[in-house]
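Table 4 source record.
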Amino acid sequence: MSYSLDTPSAQTLKSEAKSLRQDRARAGQMLTHSAALEEVARAHGFRDWNTARAALPERVAVPFQVGMRVKGFYLEQPFTGLLLGVQLAHNMQNYTLTIHFDEPVNVTPTFMFAALRQRVVTTVDIHGVSPALRGNGQPQMRVLRA
């Protein structure tokens, strides 16, 4: 059985169940659609299909995708970079992003010395704004499509 890397949704599990049925049919094992849904739901940690269906949204709109070019501000310093990783946070509202900056960003507030960062992991909301704030009230990260 192949699993999707998409954010889990009812549509994703339905697609996996269809794929499972096709795989089993090629192997000469017939499987009903409802049995495939039950098996896929259990593989994702749900008790059964009804529990999975109640817990998951029909579809999930993902504002960020791996490989996407992004720009924005990290600790109020401008950057451009490549999105290397995207994970939906446990609260199903925020995303954890791994960004590789094209050029290292100096994260120190003073220019007496430099502390450069080129790869960061950050949490942002659906609009690309970090819920974590700096001491001056500005978000730590703002991410936009490049």
